[in-house]
Amino acid sequence: MANWNPWHGCKKLSEGCANCYVYRMDAKYDRDGSAVKKNADFNLPLKRNRQKQYKITSGETVYTCFTSDFLLAEADEWRAEAWTMIKERSDLNFLFITKRIDRFAEVLPDNWGDGYENVVIGCTCENQDRADYRLPIFLELPIKHRFIACEPLLEEIDLSAYLNGKIERVVAGGESGTSARICKYDWILKIRQQCEKSGVKFWFKQTGYRFVKDKKLYLIDRKLQHSQARKAGINLLQDLENPFNL
Known about the structure:
Elements (H helix, E strand, L loop, with lengths): L1 E3 L2 E2 L12 H8 L8 E2 L22 E4 L11 H13 L4 E6 L20 E6 L3 H13 L4 E6 L18 E5 L9 E2 H14 L2 E6 L3 E4 L2 E4 L5 H7 L15
Parallel strand pairs: 1-4, 4-5, 5-6, 6-7, 7-8, 8-10, 9-11
Antiparallel strand pairs: 2-3, 11-12
């Protein structure tokens, strides 16, 4: 696994952005999370070591733009070059999550065709309103590998109408940070049931800080949120170590 953030900073867009971890992280260092800038490590996928081998080795999953949004309008001037690197490193699997799937068709490279085989795209849906707006768009786009990210999950969501064979998996989880909004285990279970019925892989990624189970509120430390989710034993995945394995 590798992390590649070609640019940093983002603009809040919807309800799920209210307690953005990027803003929270930047605030610790007295930085403005809304200031979008190109990172010095922009060309990381092409960087080589002294033996002239790629630093990111073949076959790795590259978590892309997790301190921004790959489809952010403020990054339009850099994206074409990023797409070129992604295409050149077809031996890697690039994964990004976006709240701006409605911009996707506008910013595709000319050689995209019906999608790059090595690109995995997640569409974020934090509530029913965003699911019903974003997912119809998402399902009509030329994408080879796609998943739904219900993070932070802010309410009960019905995804049944969208689990039609094009969605490979659904990820769900609560909101981190001490200002987090509540995530209820019942909401997680209902999404899991929808996935199981449709034959879609499901990953309960993290509990979040404020987690309600059996009508009891638990305040869960950040370092335990992923492990506590895994202990629930409700994932519908064969490979828990690499949940995005293609």
